[in-house]
Amino acid sequence: MIRRTGIHSSVEDEVSKIFEGKSLNALEMLREQIIQKLDSQAKIDRAYWERLLQKLKENVARQKLCQIHSLILSINATKIKVESLPISRNMKEKFDQYEAYKNGRYSPALIDFDSVPQVAKVVSETYDKKVIDSERSKIFEKFKNVVKSEEIYERMLQEAREGMNEHEMEFKDTVNIESNSSMTLKKPRFFNRINAGFDWNKYNQAHYDVDNPPPKVVLGYKFSIFYPDLLDPSKTPSYTLKPYPVDKDFSILTFNASAPYEDIAFKIVNREWETSSKYGFRGKFQDGIFQLWFHFKRYRYRR
Q1: Any idea where the Splicing factor Cactin C-terminal domain is (predicted)?
Q2: Smallest Cα–Cα separation from 23: which of 63, 52, 68, 67?
Q3: How far is residue 222's CA from residue 167's CA, in Å, rounded to a whole number?
Q4: In terms of C-beta density within 10 A (0-12 exposed, 13-18 middle, 19 or more buried), how is residue 44 classed?
């Protein structure tokens, strides 16, 4: 039986070549683009894009297997090198313990109680189990927080994309800014949109019509910045707006939050904002998401 792929066999090789030489990060970015394409309302060859997504997943899995294989080879090579070197009695005991652990003999060797040094701390089985359970709980809680963060982020993306209209488009470009922090901070994730359309002011009404519309302009922005892991959630993130030194027609909008997040900045059109909720302004922090939505003021044209 011939397996249906959704695309002609002559295109299959071209599909495979798309992923050649791409890193895992590049493949992940491409995966997001393909999913956006499939989620869009545009008329596309869905069978082709679904097949492309399937081939991409196969390439990702293959690269991860290669990484695991390389890691195993590296570990084995290190083991051979260590075995060929003269080692101390203490190191030999540790290596023997590792070999016993690897071979499934997990129980420690029985020792004579009288040989235990007086300064050694002897703990009961109950206390030891309590400590282990406590450490496991910490790891489990950390894992739950990661899963919860991912769920919130995916929900935010889904709601934002479902709420997009024909005049909105995704906005991903950031501006590099210097950090004065000595801590290792991480870049927050985000989902931003530009609201673009026609500004039918008096001038444009006088010089254009529906059949010959004026050029599209940026009418506003919607920023959604993701901060699920703030060390102090009571501190609401903030933002600053400064002129763009290279071009006066633009400004730099910077979002600031406490650890573990670094500042993140975007270049936007330099126009006065409508700051009333009546005109769609929103600035709030809720459920780990900081939203800043605004439209630009519209000016009347005078002859």
Answers
A1: 182-303
A2: 63
A3: 12
A4: exposed
For residue 203, what are its two tokens? 């001038």
Decide if pLDDT at 146 tops 80. no
Q: What is the mean pLDDT of the chain?
A: 80
Closest by CA position to 98, among listed 115, 125, 75, 129: 75
Residue keyed to tokens 């769609």: 280
Whether 289 and 156 have beta carbons less than 8 Å apart is answered as yes
Structure tokens belonging to residue 264: 């993140």
Q: What tokens appear for 189 in the block?
A: 């994730």
Please give the helix or strand (H or E) that residue 217 lies within, else none.
strand 217-226
Which residues, at least 6 apart from 198, have a Cβ–Cβ distance to it below 8 Å?
Answer: 204, 213, 214, 216, 217
Q: Which two tokens stand for residue 132?
A: 């282990």
- 3-state SS assignment for residue 173: coil
Neighbours of 292 (CB within 10 A): 21
Q: What is the DSSP string of 71-129?
A: HHHHHHHHHHHHHTS---HHHHHHHHHHHHHHTT--SPPP--GGGS-TTS----HHHHH
What's the CA gap between 230 and 244, in Å, rounded?
Answer: 29
What is the structure's pLDDT at 59?
Answer: 84
